[in-house]
Amino acid sequence: MTEWIIPCNLKYYDVKGAFSKFKAIDWKQSAKNICVGDIVYIYVGKPISAIKYKCRVNKTNLSKVEIDDSEFVINGENYENYGNHMELELIREYADTELTRDMLVENGLKSNIQGPRRVDVLIRESINKV
Question: Could you give the C-alpha distances from 56 to 47, 84, 110, 124, in angstroms and in order?
Fold first, then answer.
């Protein structure tokens, strides 16, 4: 099992609204090596700038979206014909102040979260303390 951090831009998708309605959502799968059973943390960008959600990957390499969450898509033009999705099941929601960007930087984050990345040991330890 691998742990990942992926970004969410609130200008494009209302992730909070989606998880308030659905226990699982389909998400663009940029990293082909994400596997069923992996853990994915969703980092929500400004104004929150923190990891907000811990999810389990239930399905990968979906050729089309199976869960209709279109009411939460604010601007999906970059993803309408993306063609590779995964299903993420919500495990936990964190408070805005628990896993902030500043805390991640203090524990080894070296750059902005702009795409999927594996969680390194120091960040994993910080997440597990919460």
Answer: 25, 17, 25, 15
pLDDT confidence tier of residue 31, bands split at 50, 70 and 90? confident
In angstroms, the first-to-last Cα distance of the chain is: 20
Handedness of CA 49, 25, 93, 54 (dihedral sign): negative
**pLDDT bucket at 121, cuts 50 / 70 / 90:** confident
For the record, the structure tokens of 23 come out as: 């226990």
Over the range 26-51, which residues count as b (16 or more CB within 10 Å of their CB) and which as e?
A: bbbbebeebeeebbbbbbbbeebbbb
pLDDT tens-digit series, residues 35-86: 999 999 999 999 999 999 999 999 999 988 899 999 999 987 766 667 789 9
| Alpha-carbon dihedral angle through residues 100, 129, 37, 117, given to the nearest 10 degrees | 40
Give the three-state DSSP class for 4.
Answer: strand
For 78, counting Cβ atoms within 10 Å of its Cβ (0-12 exposed, 13-18 middle, 19+ buried), the class is exposed
Position 15, amino acid: V
